[in-house]
From TrEMBL:
Entry's transmembrane regions: 21-41, 175-198, 231-253, 273-295
Function per UniProt: Part of the ABC transporter FtsEX involved in cellular division.
Domain (ABC3 transporter permease C-terminal): residue spans on this chain: 181-300
Subcellular location: Cell membrane
Protein name (database record): Cell division protein FtsX
Family: Belongs to the ABC-4 integral membrane protein family. FtsX subfamily.
Originating species: Intrasporangium calvum (strain ATCC 23552 / DSM 43043 / JCM 3097 / NBRC 12989 / NCIMB 10167 / NRRL B-3866 / 7 KIP)
UniProt keyword terms in alphabetical order: Cell cycle, Cell division, Cell membrane, Membrane, Transmembrane, Transmembrane helix
Organism phylogeny: Bacteria, Bacillati, Actinomycetota, Actinomycetes, Micrococcales
Domain FtsX extracellular: 56-158
Amino acid sequence: MRLQFLLGEIGNGLRRNLSMAVSVVIVTMISMYLLGLGLMGQRQVDTMKDYWYDRVQVTVLLCAEKTRYANCAGQATSEEQRATIKQELESLRPTVSEIFYESRAEAFGRFKETYKNSPLARAGESYFADSYRVNLADPNKFDIVASSVKGMPGVADVQDQKKLLEKFFTFMNTVSWSAIALSSLMVLAAVMLISTTIRQAAFSRRRETGIMRLVGASNFTIRFPFVMETVLASVVGAGLAMVMLWGTVKYGVVGFLSTTLTDTAFIGEVDVLSVAPIVILGVVLLATVTSWVTLRRYLRV
């Protein structure tokens, strides 16, 4: 009977404060969706790091005619110099795991296929050079390769893809942390809205709570419906946010990006499912604590 009474009070409270409950749902939904985007961004960065760092290469650019690199003196790398450079790279095993030679024409063809809309793809292969592409057993051992071949006759430059990737990952991290920071502001707005909702509900039902107090109802019995109304509205908002996040990942990432950019790794729906329980549990805890603290201040029983 007591449980039935409490459930009835929760239902009546939601009907009386429907507009405020909807407001809590919307604010919670937006804030948790932004938080989810930030968390998914962090997971995407980690996924791409794991994928690309295993494939990171060191590119040893060779000299071409009229090149701008000082070490080349405007001359192309000779066959003898190529052989010497290759021999030096071979001597670095097992730090160097694989060595591939890529001609200027092959480099241009690969770039044109990957970046069809780039102006360089229409400019011609004169912007490219022959190179040795080197896979490392440990991506952090770039300095060993660079110090061994940089400055050798016929070597124009030594490029580390890891450094280029780190700039990209830094940008991705900045975007995801910005989403998390924005969601934090929305969470603050949700806390303030929950507090305001509780205050208004407590004021509008002060007569009922007074009667309950006179008949000997406990603090828990009086406060519990208020708390559960807020928790239910918050959980609905968080649930909708996770559904939106799941749809974004399923159709935006898995359905579009992963089929368009097939040469990289992306997060999937399982990442959303692993985050959703934590987010919803956090929302329950936040709504409960906010409601209870507000009630202790504004609902004297």
